[in-house]
Amino acid sequence: MDLPTLVQTLGLPIALAVFFIWMYVSQAKEHKQDLKDIAIKSVLAIDAGTDAIRDSTEQMKLNNTALGENSHIMNDVKSVLSTRGVQQNGMGNGS
């Protein structure tokens, strides 16, 4: 049924009401699909972030293990950096 026939049959106010109801329903369906797409993308982004945090945590554990096994190397690095800091600004320990 086309618009002119609908207007002639039902009258302009009823035809407009039917049109606006149809428009509302179609927009509501589109909006619902948009929200579903956003939710899916959000879950995927959260999962990717969780995986990145998990990988970073594992790497930090490995680094801490390596530093624990080589603590003498870390002490040497701290000593060298401390000496360089004193040489650059003439002060020790940032004071």
Key words describing this protein structure:
mainly alpha, 95 residues, 3 helices
Number of helices: 3
Distance between the termini: 86 Å
Strand content: under 5%
The computed structural class is: mainly alpha
| Annotation, overall tally of beta strands | 0
Query: What is the number of domains?
Result: 1
| Approximate shape | rod-shaped
Note the run of SSEs as H and E: HHH
Major sheet details? none
Question: Average pLDDT, to the nearest integer?
Answer: 83
Contiguous uncertain segments of 5+ residues:
none
Q: What share of the residues lie within helices?
A: over 70%
Radius of gyration: 34 Å
Structure write-up:
- It is a single chain.
- The chain is mostly helical.
- The chain has one domain.
- 89% of the residues lie in helices and 0% in strands.
- The chain has three helices and no strands.
- It has helices at residues 3-10, 12-69, 71-89.
- α1 packs across α2 (12-69).
- The chain is rod-shaped, with a radius of gyration of 34 Å.
- The termini are far apart.
Sequence-ordered SSE layout with sheet pairings:
Blueprint: H1 3-10, H2 12-69, H3 71-89
Outline:
With 95 residues, the chain is mainly α. Helix content is 89%, strand content 0%.
